[in-house]
Amino acid sequence: MASYYSAFLGSEEPHFLESCSLCSKHLGPNSDIFMYRGDTAFCSQECREEQIESDEAKERSWKLSARSLRKKSSEAAKDSAAGKTVRTGTLVVA
After folding, report:
1. 61: containing domain
2. Is residue 43 in some structural domain?
3. Per-residue pLDDT tens for 19-34?
4. Which of 36, 39, 31 is nearest to 54 (CA)?
5. 32-60: per-residue pLDDT in tens?
6. What UniProt keywords apply to this chain's record, in alphabetical order (predicted)?
7. From CA 89, how far away is CA 30, in angstroms rounded?
8. How far is 14 from 67, CA to CA, in rounded Å?
């Protein structure tokens, strides 16, 4: 069964405005659509907010991980400069 959007656009591929990106609820031609980041559609403000909060939590986690890695690198460089043995987590296998 072709959707409103695929019939309108002349394409058989699923269109990003057919269903909510979070809960997969069908988005009809006369329903409100809440957009996020330009191409992500949601059925309600609540679904959109939930996705935003999830994305922000992931971003905070990535930033904390990156900060932790930079700190470990900095500490290893200091230890190396002080003449201490430094072991990294890299393993090379031939």
Report:
1. 15-69
2. yes
3. 999 999 999 888 899 9
4. 36
5. 999 999 889 999 999 999 999 999 999 99
6. Metal-binding, Zinc, Zinc-finger
7. 55
8. 40
